[in-house]
Specification:
elongated; binds flavin-adenine dinucleotide; alpha/beta; 5-stranded parallel sheet; 7-stranded mixed sheet; 6 helices
């Protein structure tokens, strides 16, 4: 069996694996897609100490760093079940069952997609999901934020300081964000809020040039010209496979303590799949290191 088995090969999982391997314990890592979300990221400007890099390049460096250690890498494998027996058992979709004394879940998250024409086509060509990451690319431009919950309104406030104009589109008749955020949003001169708006299509040629929505009150169709669309309708943690075993909050995020421990002894979690407050590369790495040290602490006590 493994001492530490990491599930997930993004920034959190890679860091957890390196920290474990550096303790000289038997470490494995299972990843559906080594690199994780950063494989879908173009420019990264907030990975501190590296002024600029690109997702695929950072993913390759992560993998190279992990390979420098004695880590058993099982790439292109998906975990489908976890069970705590004497050891912790993780069953993969290919039928294999891996056993480990401690497990670190770092399966990340995925942005909830709108699922309208143009969204996939213009991803990274005007369609963005992370205002902290891609906001500065839209300096002086007109952008839309889709979603009027807390993340959408926070994104709009953030973007209003960078972009020329921000249009917020909310599907429901009212914004769902906290009142303080709404007050702040409405105080900004360069923000327009459109409620009852169902986004129908993101338009463009080689990149985004606009967005079509249906006014749900009247059924009328409208088109707005703009250069960027931030989709802010939620982040979905990849934790469905832990249903019934590891405790999660109502968003599906794994609940962890400050050492990354879950409610199941020996099972730790890190990164975007947890209830951590913010989801970023550098934060996921920090949480991966934390969970790995937490797991090591657990091992020497058990
Ligand atoms: P992930 O990166 O999501 O990795 C999860 C890993 O788990 C993957 O290897 C995945 O294949 C694997 N996995 C999932 N389910 C299973 C399973 N059942 N079995 C086995 N493996 C599984 N952050 C920044 O700091 N700066 C940026 O500029 C930035 N830009 C971004 C741009 C985009 C388009 C996106 C989507 C995100 C961006 N982020 C950025 C956020 C950042 O990518 C995430 O916070 C970070 O990748 C989270 O790391 P993680 O390891 O927790 O999860």
């Amino acid at each position: 069996p493994f001492d530490v088995l990491v599930i997930g090969g993004g920034p959190a999982g890679a860091t957890a694996a390196i920290y474990a391997a550096r303790k000289g314990i038997r470490t494995g890592i299972v990843a559906e897609r080594f690199g994780g979300q950063i494989l879908d990221t173009l420019g990264i400007e907030n990975f501190i100490s590296v002024k600029y890099t690109e997702g695929p390049k950072l993913a390759a460096s992560l993998e190279e760093h992990v390979k420098h250690y004695n880590v058993d890498i099982m790439n292109l494998q998906r975990a489908k079940r976890l069970e705590k027996k004497d050891l912790i058992e993780v069953e993969l979709e290919n039928g294999a069952v891996l056993k480990s004394k401690a497990v670190i879940v770092a399966t990340g998250a995925r942005w909830r997609n709108l699922g309208v024409p143009g969204e996939a086509e213009f991803k990274n060509k005007g369609v963005a999901y992370c205002p902290h990451c891609d906001g500065p690319l839209f300096e002086g431009k007109h952008v839309a934020v889709i979603g009027g919950g807390n993340s959408g309104v926070e994104a709009a406030i953030d973007l209003a300081g960078i972009a020329k104009h921000v249009t917020v589109l909310e599907f429901a008749p009212e914004l769902k964000a906290d009142a303080v955020l709404q007050d702040r949003l409405y105080s900004l001169p360069n923000v327009t809020v459109i409620k009852n708006a169902q986004t129908k299509e993101i338009t463009g040629t080689d990149k985004v040039n606009g967005l079509t929505y249906i006014d749900r009150a009247t059924g009328e169709e409208h088109h707005i010209e703009l250069q960027g669309v931030f989709v802010q309708i939620g982040l979905v943690p990849n934790t469905e496979w832990l249903e019934g075993t590891v405790e999660r909050n109502r968003f599906g995020e794994i609940i962890v303590d400050k050492r990354g421990a879950t409610n199941v002894p020996g099972v730790f979690a890190a990164g975007d799949c947890t209830d951590s407050a913010y989801k970023q590369i550098i934060i996921s790495m920090g949480l991966g290191a934390t969970a790995s040290l937490g797991a090591f602490d657990y091992l020497i006590r058990n």
